[in-house]
Amino acid sequence: MKNTIVVGAQWGDEGKGKLVDVLAEQSDLVVRFNGGGNAGHTVMHDGETYKFHYMPSGMLHHKTCILGTGVVINPKDLLEEMESFTSSGHSPKLKISARAHVIFPHHQLIDAKEGGKIGTTGRGIGPTYSQKASRINLRMLDIIADDAEQRIKTALKDVKDMLVSEGILSEQDYNDYCSSVAVEYAKYGQHFKPFITDTEDLVRIASKSGQSVLFEGAQGTLLDLNYGTYPYVTSSSTLAAAAYVGGGAIPGVPIRILGITKAYTTRVGEGPFPTELHGEAATLLRETGHEYGATTGRPRRVGHLDLYALRYAIRISGIQELAMTKIDTLALVSGIKVCTAYKINDKVIDYFPADAPTLELVEPIYTEIDSISSLSREDWSKLKTGNKAALPESIRNYIKFIEDYVEIPISILSHGPERNETIVF
Ligand code: GDP
Ligand code: IMO
Ligand code: MG
Fold it and tell me: Which candidate in 21, 28, 41, 61 is catalytic?
């Protein structure tokens, strides 16, 4: 199988974890390339639910899994996730990039103070990437070094003035913080030492020797730092291109770019959401789809499928095919519409607004869609032929409508959270 990049084509939580779990069976290596503990990727298999924040969703297949250079890592949280996975009888085969940046407690404190207006996950993502860009943060290779404690203390000096002047820590707390965090993180370093390596080299060797590498994106294209609904975005690149920069994908090696979309739309946190539903209709969709964040437990905002935004995401991420999830949820709600165009001040527009306040002004133009047939598990299991023609007419029409609009195929349909509730066409 060719190398594959899986990315979210909306605002995250599209079902990337489930799809990566499905595709990992055929892959040799699974690589996370962006984000950190803000991600919550759910995999359900044999009635067990796993929520991965760091560990790639290929873990259940015991494939070698990599946290690439583009990922930011809170070692404490990663350790807990690994221990919980191990205690449930699994053995993680994990490799971590020496170059991946470290999330420290002060990043979370800054995020808690400043992230409110964006509605961040509070995992310290923005401050870590921001200090990475300012070239004052530490990487995994620093916390495994023999002089790790000293390196941590020195790095903390660079942020002391900011932490104290912004009231994040008092002068006294800063001193206590410095010594305790240096000891604590040097210990994590010793724990993670055997896992840390040049992961790009592993990816390169695997790609060159014909092995199949699966790149797992976090968040979604519309949360991309450069092309998303800025400033209501995350602080990393979430596009397929980020698999090259943050995961070691090699330009020129053939790759399949698979975007994941729900059959409707959700978003967690603040920011424009043109097709958002409110009131009873929103509650019904949210409860039917169990739309609560896998990382923070926050209720997700829900709305109609926004094909206009999806097409934009497909274009900027270079998505070649789509996997559509949660068709089973959409089948349980009535009044389905899809947005096919945007109007501002009564004028149809032909661009995706880069300016968040302008996007707030958008009036979506909808096309009504026939209700989607609701199928029993047994009915679904009879449809595993991989043939779109065998699907009920309403689902076939919905797929065809979307494919015609976005001009790429829906090659996978997911009709439940379990691995086997998936049809590959
Ligand atoms: P991710 O962040 O993209 O991996 O997505 P999340 O795990 O945050 O959210 C997706 C949710 O939808 C999870 O609870 C999945 O178990 C669930 N899910 C994925 N695909 C389907 C599907 O086709 N049908 C239903 N009902 N649930 C699904
Ligand atoms: P997965 O990988 C959905 C959102 C947050 C907030 C914004 C910035 O599970 O799809 P951050 O903590 O990254 O600084 O928050 O981005 N966000 C997500 N929304 N799914 C995610 O990840 C998200 N990761 C971040 O809610 O609006
Ligand atoms: Mg998620």
Answer: 41
Longest dimension (CA), the chain: 69
Q: Pick the closest to residue 370 from 352, 387, 395, 346 (CA basis).
A: 395
Report pLDDT digits (tens) over 21-33: 999 999 999 999 9
Same domain flag for 309 and 173: no
User: What CATH number has the domain bearing residue 185?
Assistant: 1.10.300.10
In angstroms, the CA 124 to CA 219 distance is 15
Query: 166, 238, 177, 250: which is closest to 208 by C-alpha?
Result: 250
What is the four-CA torsion angle of 283, 288, 289, 295, rounded to 10 degrees? Answer: 60
Active site residue 13: yes
128 and 275 in a common domain: no
Going from the C-alpha of 76 to that of each of 52, 184, 189, 191, 328, the distances in angstroms are: 14, 9, 10, 10, 37
Same domain flag for 366 and 223: yes
Whether 41 is a known active-site residue: answer: yes
State whether the beta carbon of 416 lies less than 6 angstroms from ligand 1.
yes
**3-class SS at 20?**
helix
Same domain, 414 and 270: yes
pLDDT tens-digit readout, 345-360 = 999 999 999 999 999 9
Look at the block and give the residue holding tokens 């599209």.
14
Q: What's the predicted TM-score (pTM) here?
A: 0.97
Which pair of tokens denotes residue 88?
A: 């449930």
